[in-house]
Design a protein that fits this description.
By secondary structure, this protein is an alpha+beta fold. Helices cover 16% and strands 29% of the residues.
Length: 244
Amino acid sequence: MIIDGTGIDATAAYKLLIGSILPRAVAWVSTVSTDGVGNLAPISFFTAVGRKPPMISISLQPRSDGVTLKDTFVNIQDTGEFVTNLAVLPLADQLHRSAYEFDSSVDEFAELGLEKAPSEVVRAPRIKEAPISFECVVNRIIPVGDTHDHVVWGEVVRFHIRDDLYLERGRVDTAALPVIGRLAAEYTLVDNVFTTPLEEGVVDAHEGRRMERLDGRATEWSPIDTAQWSPSGSTSAPGKESAA
């Protein structure tokens, strides 16, 4: 299948991107509004872009109506600050629910039962339960194409690494982290590690295998086929239309 990327709409392009760039790291972004309201959002267009200074990027789409800017972006634009928190399995449900489109007046930390931890440099709080957090100040904001999408570059001004994860020579104990990523509109647990070359038998044993599901659903099921999914990265509570 060959698809002309110059002639497809944003929804179709989004489906192809999220289904092909696998797995995608998740930045669980915490911000605070100018009125002091805490906000949380999982952003899976996220990567490192520089080392000196340490720099990351996140890309944000508008809400599910395709026009209204998300509170996360508004807060970042207004305050010039944000925090990225590591997404891990014990917090997966709260992470997913933080993609619901809450009213701007709702403090999502309280709504999701998460505790705030103070940052050292930025006003935005960290998620206390997150094992790793980056305090970031905005370096630049880049509009994308003819959509309401934006790329935000943030300079990491403070790294918060849980003590037991910080090893000698500045290394992070990655094998101790039950980190999760995104596969299309679903999640994956990173629970194996390897270096190459692998023995031929190991590679052959994985040929043609489908991923194991932790939730017991059929292997071909996808939330993209449900009413709760939207091409904004937002979602809605089961049984509700995507809004609010």
